[in-house]
Specification:
The chain is of the alpha/beta class. The chain is 21% helix and 22% strand. It has 9 helices and 18 strands. The structure holds guanosine-5'-triphosphate (GTP) and magnesium ion (MG).
Length: 422
Amino acid sequence: MFLDRVKITIKSGNGGNGSASFLRTAMTAKGGPDGGEGGNGGNVIFKVDKNLNTLYNFKYHKKFVAENGGDGSKRLKTGANGKDIIINVPCGTVIYDSETGKIIADLCEIDSEFLALRGGKGGHGNAYYKSSIKQAPHYSQTGEVTKQREVILELKTIADVGLVGFPNAGKSTLLSVISNANPKIANYPFTTLYPNLGVCEVYGQTFVVADIPGLIEGASEGQGLGHYFLRHVERVRLILHLVDISQSDGRDFIEDYININNELSKYSTDLSKIPQLVVFTKSDLLEQDVLEQREKLFQDKINKEYITISAATHHNVEQLKQITLEKLSKIPKKASVEIEKFDFDQRDIDSLVISREDDGTFVVSGGKIDNFIRGVVLSDNRSFAYFQNRLQQMGIIDMLKHRGLKNGGTVKIKDIVFEYTE
Ligand SMILES: Nc1nc2c(ncn2[C@@H]2O[C@H](COP(=O)(O)OP(=O)(O)OP(=O)(O)O)[C@@H](O)[C@H]2O)c(=O)[nH]1
Ligand SMILES: [Mg+2]
């Protein structure tokens, strides 16, 4: 089963909590704050693995969660950082944000890495808050809690050359003859079920060839597997359009040529703009005079550049490789897909939303509050006083009053519910 589009869930690790602790030993009855910092959560990283060429690994494994950071502890001990999770993908994987459909990354270099989600920050321990005026802070900060996200991975093969043509045209046979690939070959249509890649070498230079299977009439409207695979043609620089000139499947070779081109242009005008070289295959099956007649017919009717080969006898195969290399040298490398500037991992630390529940309770939420509340531990009157002070400083009390909060009104901020008193 070939898998080239899949939705997965990813999550970076939460930050570990900072610790609130005081040094107590036999010698120091009243030691200072010694609560250590929480560790950072692990990141989510995508990495190109050259040994992969499908997204099959994601068929059953769809959730990837990096490790949480460890909590800080006494004696200034910092929590361990959570381990990153590395997600291996094949070269040519484009990553989309499932929510907005925007492209997050296009991974087309071997071994390249992409940091998709940063781990949550660890919280500060109480030792961090010690200052000349605050000798014994009793509070610490909780770690940053990260959100789970969904992304779509889509494989768009990166090859210089795409082999297209009707099933049985001889695509896989040609690939096996000109490259290191070893695809399945058989005398029936749809032998190849997913694109194969091979590296072809000519005079010490190389190019990558993709065998794009399953193209038939109606492919652009979803017939067969072809439509599914046409996205792999999008990024090739040159199409070798294979046409069985021996007509061994009983169809007219010129109609075959026209039909496949129709499918390409129906799929997208971009595909029809990709430079093409027509390759007539299986010349060994025809008498020389019949072959010449058909070539002449093609010249008269279509008048496009072509080369006639036989993968069986290797007739013209070397020439085809050389012409392909020569053509490629004149076609610029394709830019990778266009990426809009988009910070997928942007953290919301600014939003502030005030809403009201049916019973009149004011609810304050948003990233600004989430961030602030990490440092709030309502263990006693002092910390509550701090909490109220900060609400005042942040302008939240004024905003609430503006929205109608009166003395005695109820306010809910995350898990904290309190009565407002002036
Ligand atoms: N005589 C002869 N037979 C060939 C030649 N090239 C391919 N064939 C045969 O044609 C049949 C189909 O070849 P494949 O390479 O599997 O064709 P394909 O285009 O990959 O077909 P699908 O994978 O089904 O799309 C096989 O039986 C091959 O042996 C050739 O140059 N000469
Ligand atoms: Mg094949």
